[in-house]
Structure formats: structure tokens, C-alpha cells
Amino acid sequence: MNIQIVRSISILLIGVLFLVLGDSALSVLVMAVGALLMIPGIFALISYIRHMEQRRMFPLAALGSFVLGLWMVVSPEVFVGFFMYVVGGVLVALGIYQLAGLSMSSRVLPVAWPLYVLPVLVLLLGLFVLFNPFEAAAIPFILIGIGCIISAVNYMVAALRTAKQRRHSRQSIEIEDAEVVS
Question: Mind giving me the DSSP string for the chain?
């Protein structure tokens, strides 16, 4: 499966989650990240305890990962403010990445100008979230959800268009290489 399609499905799911969960989405996401940080910390600590006789160094990073993850799970509101800036930054980066990808594609294939509209909207949305992270708390989540869905649709269209163009290019190459038999 094309990595662009997997990426677009992932972004689409994140966007739908933001729309469905609304302003509670951020707390859920922070808690999920916290749980994901706890898992390797737990395994490293258990491994250390099981092999204590080998006199290995104490896994301080694993303990730190576990404590940070636990803190994120127990009190996600501490990290919510920071997380909004991260999400805004990710949207800005995603918009720039998509614009750069379209620009690079335009060197090889003709790219219609409407395909540039969606990445610009994602970029602007990211800037809005960065500069207004707490203004009308529900609005950024709805906008982030919409932005992720728009971005996912844009990725999907670009992936399908690129795949179609590649198939067409391969077919024309095969025809050009054919020999005339008389």
C-alpha cells in the first residue's frame, strides 16, 4: 500500500477524532501519549529488576519516561497548553510540506492551482492555532479536525493522481520500446 494513502488515512482518523471528541480531545491525546511513554519505561524497569544480579546501570531514562507518562495520564491539563503549540506547529509544518511536495511535483507533472488551496488553508490554520491557542477552546479543535480532514483528502487526491500518472507513464514507455514486426 502506498505510504501516502496510509498517511492520509491516519490524518483523516485524527481529524475525525478531533471533531467527535471536541475540546476533550486534547486531554485524551495527552493521556494517550502519556500511556505510550509509560509502556517502555515499565518494560525497562521490569527488565532491570529481573536482571539485578548483572549489576547493570539503573535505567534512569526509563524511570523518567515512566514518571513523565504517569504525570501526563494523571493530570493532562498541565500539558494541554504546551500541546496546542505542538499541534499548531505540526499543522504549519504539514502545510509547508504539502506545498513543497506540490512544488516539486509541478516540475515533473502539471499541478492544478486548486491543489495548492488546501495546503495553504492547513498552513493558515496552523498559524491561527499557534497565535490563538486558548481563544474559544472548542474552535481550535474543530478547526484542527477540519484541517486534518482537508489535509487527508489532499494527500489522498495527490497519491491517487500520482499513481495514475505513473501507470500512464509506464504504459507509454512500454509502447515506445515495442518493435515493429513485419
Answer: --HHHHHHHHHHHHHHHHHHHGGGHHHHHHHHHHHHHHHHHHHHHHHHHHTGGG-PPP-HHHHHHHHHHHHHHH-THHHHHHHHHHHHHHHHHHHHHHHHHHHHHHHHS---THHHHHHHHHHHHHHHHHH-SSTTTHHHHHHHHHHHHHHHHHHHHHHHHHHHHHHHHHHHHHHHTPPP--
